[in-house]
Amino acid sequence: MEIKSVALLGAGAVGSYIIWGLSKLPDIRFGIIAEGSRAARLRDDGCTINNVTYHPQVWSPQEAKGVDLLIVALKYGALPGALAIIREAVGPHTTVMSLMNGVDSEEIIAGAVDSKQILPALIKIASRHEGNGVRFNPEKTIGIVFGEAQAPFESERVLAIEALMRSADIHIRHTDCINEEIWCKFRLNVCNNLPQA
Question: CATH: 3.40.50.300, 3.40.50.720, 3.40.50.980, 3.30.70.1730. Which one for 5-196?
Fold first, then answer.
């Protein structure tokens, strides 16, 4: 298995890490799913990341239909309204990876697509909005942690996604304990980040 096409839903602070990495791969068909005024703004203005403006392709859900990998990087509250978009973009062989905070985005997405197509994941990144763009330190970014919820843990799709992300300099680690890792990230957000803020 090889990942040759990737769609991103959500081009904010988390999605910017994906844009930064995958935009440099010439052999990967990569685009951001957006509609209406958001799509027009992305086409016109691009995405400014670490003071560099990127102009990835902008696709409707129909244009993204059947990509090998769909990455969902929305704010949690936006997910219910995006389920129709996810359903439209996912084909029979699409893997869906959610990088959203919380512990139930995979379960919510499974209301729109086959749960077997969902590969649980999380992201740890210290990114911030700065002016009209996003800034993060690529070297210090922990990155994406992902894995199958049950054996076989080194599945074909896990190895294919890991190879893709490593070729894009995106930090990634697969794990045999992804559900525990997701809960640990939730604990970090609730127990550490709130008091620090």
Answer: 3.40.50.720
